[in-house]
């Protein structure tokens, strides 16, 4: 069993990004990410701070906008429109979840697709599905990078994704297909789940249920990627029962310290890509 160290791989990629950012600045182009937060969700506040710090560490300029939960949606829309028109801003991110009164889909769709560095827009998901260039969703893109930096050959492998969310499961499946894996998506209505997962060479858990994946669901020697972040008895744990599954897996990601650091790293990657394209 080997551990895929997401922190270490993330740092390697960020060092590469730092060099590219420095080269762009010599050409008078300063990559810039605008982050918008609405309300006072504690987890969101932590995520935003981490994103801003990651920008600083990489040399990317960050703009932070924080609105109270009772702000009028039109005011946020006005800010997004302004950032869309600002050529010095290369990426726009609206931190989710949003307060209930907001139309999350409509607000995210308002972001110019050329600045959608989260990769959530219908346009960028469509580009991924068609095999065209675009911004890839950060978490599944981070998973692909983890596999690549760990020298996992994806082509021809049986890959199973547990979870079909628009932010992880679906784009994850598309990215694995892009790398020539044979892909199965499992979800809450899947029958005989254990039989399907136990045949996976690469198993990716993104279902949001603590310790859902147990050893009897995993093939001997499989590569197991745990995207889940859950709280259990005051601890942060993944969707995979790490202690027992790690005994069967050839490679496995821990929680925390696996996929998590890569999500922000790929956000930086996409922001730099946007700056380079402009």
Name the average pLDDT.
96
Spatial separation of the terminal alpha carbons = 44 Å
User: How many helix segments?
Assistant: 10
If you compute it from the alpha carbons, what radius of gyration comes out, rounded to the nearest whole angstrom?
A: 19 Å
How many beta-strand elements?
11
Which H/E pattern describes the elements? EHEHEHEHHHEHEHEEEEHEH
Helix content: 40-55%
Classification by helices and strands: alpha/beta
Strand percentage = 15-25%
Residue stretches low in confidence (pLDDT < 50, at least 5 long) are none
Shape: globular
Main sheet makeup? 6 strands, parallel
For the biggest β-sheet, the strand order reads: 1-11-8-7-5-6
Structure description:
The structure is a single chain. By secondary structure, this protein is of the alpha/beta class. The protein has 10 helices and 11 strands. The strands form 3 sheets. The chain has a 6-stranded parallel beta sheet with strand order 1-11-8-7-5-6. The protein has a 3-stranded parallel beta sheet with strand order 3-2-4, sandwiched between helices. Strands 9-10 form a two-stranded antiparallel ribbon. α2 links the parallel β2 (32-38) and β3 (61-67). α1 runs parallel beside α10 (260-277), α2 packs across α10 and α6 (138-149) packs across α10 (260-277). It is globular. 42% of the residues are buried. The model has no long low-confidence stretch (mean pLDDT 96).
């Amino acid at each position: 069993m080997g551990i895929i160290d997401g922190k270490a791989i993330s740092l390697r990629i960020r060092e590469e990004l730092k060099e590219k950012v420095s080269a762009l600045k010599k050409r008078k182009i300063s990559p810039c990410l605008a982050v918008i937060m609405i309300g006072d969700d504690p987890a969101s506040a932590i995520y935003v701070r981490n994103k801003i710090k990651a920008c600083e560490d990489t040399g990317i300029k960050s703009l932070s906008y924080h609105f109270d939960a009772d702000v009028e949606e039109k005011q946020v829309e006005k800010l997004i429109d302004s950032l869309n028109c600002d050529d010095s801003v290369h990426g726009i991110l609206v931190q989710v979840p949003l307060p209930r009164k907001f139309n999350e889909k409509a607000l995210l769709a308002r972001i110019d697709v050329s600045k959608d560095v989260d990769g959530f827009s219908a346009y960028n998901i469509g580009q991924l599905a068609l095999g065209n260039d675009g911004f890839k969703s950060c978490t599944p893109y981070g998973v692909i990078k983890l596999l690549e930096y760990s020298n996992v050959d994806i082509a021809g492998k049986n890959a199973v994704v547990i979870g079909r969310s628009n932010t992880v499961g679906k784009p994850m499946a598309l990215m694995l297909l892009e790398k020539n894996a044979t892909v199965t998506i499992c979800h809450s209505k899947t029958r005989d789940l254990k039989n399907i997962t136990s045949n996976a060479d690469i198993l990716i858990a993104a279902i949001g249920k603590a310790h859902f994946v147990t050893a009897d669901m995993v093939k001997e020697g499989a590569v197991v990627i745990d995207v889940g972040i859950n709280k259990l008895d005051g601890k942060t744990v993944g969707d995979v029962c790490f202690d027992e599954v790690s005994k069967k897996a050839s490679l496995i990601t821990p929680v925390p310290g696996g996929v998590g650091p890569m999500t922000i790293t790929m956000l930086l990657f996409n922001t730099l890509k946007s700056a380079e394209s402009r």
